[in-house]
Amino acid sequence: MRKTPPPEEYTTEYYLTDCEGFRDFSSGGISARHKKVLAYLEVKPQQRVIDIGCGRGELVRECNRLGAWAIGIDYSPAAVRISHHTAKQGVIITASATHLPFRGGTFDKVILIDVVEHLDKSDLCVCLGEINRVLRRGGVLLIETPNTWRKLVGWWSRFTFRPEQLALFSAKSLYYVQTMHVNEQNPLSLKRILHQNGFSSKIRFHFPEIAYLSFWKTTIYRIFFLCGPIWCRARKK
Questions:
Q1: How does pLDDT run across 167-192, given as a tens digit for each residue?
Q2: Domain boundaries, the chain
Q3: Class level of CATH domain 7-236
Q4: In Å, how far are 67, 143, 172, 188 from 44, measured between CA atoms?
Q5: Which of 154, 188, 223, 235 has the highest CB neighbour count under 10 A?
């Protein structure tokens, strides 16, 4: 079984040249996916929010701008350094997702974006147990993670993606995925793990717009294959 990568794997280069949203970050903005996080999470003033695996710190900064009391944690020294610079008004702590240094019932909302796939099976269960502990009853956990069902249609990319589009998946990006994604889920397995750790959950899919596909290819891609990233809004029971 593949183990959770060590924090040293998550370098400054990774966060600034490959990690999702780096182009928007470099121009001072946030990515479309991060905007969806804020919309789905429905952050309100005075709410207590924690971003686990906060990366560059954009979501901590934005939650604070919305009037929340937001904290970011990451076990990567590079992420913590970058986040301190990004979220100047926020609190950034070096900590592991498997050991949250907070009292029980501290938070109203928890963000877990692009983290599930980086935790091995054991660490993921421990992490969800910790999240359950620090969430207040009825609190919300928002997850976004890759969907293993996409692998069922990997062959289809030869017909739906042009060569120049496939070339966007650089050797470096493939290395990061192959090295860091140790425990990807499908909608059913994620829902089962959440239930086992005290959460009720609702799965939703986000399908990126693919402008160069025909209507019928897009329809097949979205409806029949359901291979887009998993979005999950879970509540502590």
A1: 455 566 667 777 899 999 999 999 99
A2: 7-236
A3: alpha beta
A4: 7, 18, 38, 30
A5: 235
